[in-house]
């Protein structure tokens, strides 16, 4: 995770981007590239064999989603990393929609089942949308955990809560998602 010094730099760059300084977008992305690339590697390792994206392609797609529609405005690093996680999620959903619906191992994604259950990625997306409406903080925890692979310590810092609160949010969100998705089992 970013050091305290780079965290201050992230905050400064976000303020510059909000002020319209386009060069700061690239500087910010260079600063966080390694962390985002590692998250992309972890995420792509869980995708189906033969997936057409490599981690670098995935990171490029995330960059385009964040910065191609004009000025990106993130008030703080929590919002920024949440936006990165949302961009990763949406890129995978859009890619899945272009192909036939893809099934993923739910226990790999959410790490709670003892037996493998396969879930349609589009069903997971719908459940995440519902979770976001009902429990926004829990939704942010899930996105950061499964799409960025962030630690509970880092998530707690960004959410301005204790690690135990983030862990409870994660446990609640996993149970909530499992309940929503168990009835939608599509087999392997």
Please tell me about this protein's structure:
- The protein contains nine helices and two strands; from the N terminus they run H-H-H-H-E-H-E-H-H-H-H.
- It has 188 residues and is mainly alpha-helical.
- It has a two-stranded antiparallel ribbon.
- Mean pLDDT is 80; it is low at 111-116.
Helix content: over 70%
Would you identify the regions where 5 or more consecutive residues have pLDDT less than 50?
A: 111-116
CATH topology category name of the largest domain: Rna Polymerase Sigma Factor, Chain: A
Strand arrangement, major sheet: 1-2
Return the CATH architecture of the largest domain: Orthogonal Bundle
Distance between the termini: 35 Å
What is the tally of beta strands? 2
Question: How is the main sheet built?
Answer: 2 strands, antiparallel
Approximately what portion of the residues adopt beta-strand conformation? under 5%
Element order: H for helix, E for strand: HHHHEHEHHHH
- Judged by helices, strands and strand pairing, the structural class is mainly alpha
* CATH class (first level) name of the largest domain: Mainly Alpha
Mean pLDDT equals 80
Q: What general form does the structure show? A: globular
How many H/I helices?
A: 9
Question: How many discrete domains?
Answer: 2
Q: Measured on Cα atoms, how large is the radius of gyration?
A: 17 Å
